[in-house]
Amino acid sequence: MASQELLLLGLFAIVSSIALASDPSSLQDFCVAAPNSPVLVNGLVCKDPKQVQAQDFFFSGLHKPGNTSNPVGSRVTPVTVTQIPGLNTLGISLARIDYAPWGINPPHTHPRGSEILTVTEGSLEVGFVTSNPENRLITKVLQKGDVFVFPVGLIHFQRNIGYGNAIAIAALSSQNPGVITIANAVFGSKPKIYADILAKAFQVDKKIVLQVQSKF
Question: Which pairs are disulfide-linked (predicted)?
Answer without folding.
Answer: 31-46
